[in-house]
Design goal:
Layout: H1 3-35, H2 42-60, E1 63-72, E2 78-84, H3 85-90, H4 92-100, H5 102-124, H6 134-156, E3 172-174, H7 175-178, E4 187-189, H8 190-212, H9 214-224, H10 226-231, H11 236-258, H12 268-283, H13 288-305, H14 308-313, H15 317-332
Antiparallel strand pairs: 1-2, 3-4
Length: 346
């Protein structure tokens, strides 16, 4: 593989990983920017989203037994076979297609679930900690994350659960050939490209919602000066509660589509949580563009640090590169890349 081929491949790997970082960090920043809450349970929302895909997959595979006259046991008797209910409802071909596309369909399935969980979390717990110190917020939300993690472990077990992508989206594409390189120079999995495109759509949708809708404009005004917006007679608290639900939805959808890349397990939220907070801090606390930019930047850097050359030259660099970059950025720009003055500086 040539130098340019290798560089492009690592950039693709970085954008793929950075997509997950950016989506989770975007939701974290939405919550912090609107409510001022440091939500350590946000990684658990990512995990719950992934298990929404697992849940839908199991629902679609619910079956009943029927007698198949075309199959015989060793005694010549007809065999009993398990037939999914969706096969009987929609026909074998359509039913099989629905099961095959269970992960993309789980996006629709997860939206109301994540919105409800986000609303319940904010109304039932988070609202009581708005005026409490950030240390209290961290402790209570971290405890909530552990509780949610153990609930998932109880119902789904401790082992990772496969949630395969649709058959049509399995395999790889010859990206290099499309870009004018030699055949087979850059072969990349289709689902990773789908995940990056999905992340781009979600991120673009959130920014468009905040930028071009009346609701979003009021929320941005409330983020800048909550007291003044409240004095205008606008119920900004209700809008911020809705934003908490949207942030939960963003994290959940990121988890849904991440399942085929890394089989869901009960601790996947914690695995992403610390890295996502590093992304938020590097991007700048309260800065939505900063969170997204830092997510992709750190994802690309982590990808390059994972190459054989990098790990041979500096063993373990792939494990610490994000934290090294965070230290350097915060030493030179204490507010992060795009941080605002006055955020968490009192």
């Amino acid at each position: 593989m040539g130098t340019m081929d290798a560089i492009l491949l690592q950039i693709l790997n970085g954008l793929d990983k950075g997509s997950a970082y950016a989506l989770i960090a975007l939701g974290l920043t939405l919550i912090f920017g609107t409510l001022g809450v440091v939500n350590f349970a946000h990684g658990a929302l990512f995990m719950i989203g992934a298990f929404c895909a697992v849940m839908l997959q199991r629902i679609l595979n619910l079956s009943f037994q029927t007698i198949d006259e075309t199959q015989k046991d060793f005694l010549g008797n007809p065999l009993k076979v398990d037939t999914p209910y969706v096969h009987s409802w929609f026909g074998p071909e359509t039913g099989a297609a629905i099961i095959d596309w269970s992960v993309p369909l789980a996006v629709i399935f997860a939206i109301p679930i994540m919105l409800f969980i986000g609303y319940a979390m904010e109304r039932g717990l988070i609202k009581h900690f708005y005026k409490r110190p950030h240390a209290d917020q961290i402790l209570v939300t971290f405890g909530l994350a552990i509780v949610l993690q153990e609930i998932i472990k109880y119902f789904f077990g401790a082992n990772p659960i496969q949630t395969p992508e649709p058959s049509a989206l399995k395999g790889s594409l010859d990206i290099g050939l499309m870009l004018g390189f030699d055949p087979n120079a850059i072969i990349y999995p289709i689902w990773r490209l789908v995940y990056f495109a999905f992340a781009a759509v979600i991120i673009g949708g959130v920014f468009a919602f905040l930028q071009f809708t009346t609701f979003g404009m009021v929320v941005r005004a409330g983020m800048a000066d909550r007291e003044t917006v409240g004095l205008l007679g606008i119920n900004i608290d209700k809008r911020f509660t809705i934003m908490f639900g949207i942030a939960a939805g963003v994290a959940g959808l990121a988890g849904v589509m991440y399942g085929p890349l890394n089989p869901p397990n009960y601790h996947m939220g914690m695995d992403f949580l610390v890295l996502s907070f590093v992304v938020v801090v590097v991007g700048g606390m309260g800065s939505l563009p900063g969170a997204v930019a830092a997510g992709f930047l750190l994802g690309v850097l982590e990808s390059f640090a994972s190459t054989t050359w990098a790990t041979t030259t500096i063993p373990g660099i792939n494990q610490i590169i994000i934290y090294l970059v965070a230290i350097i950025i915060l030493l030179t720009r204490p507010r992060g890349l795009l941080g605002r003055k006055g955020v968490m500086e009192d």
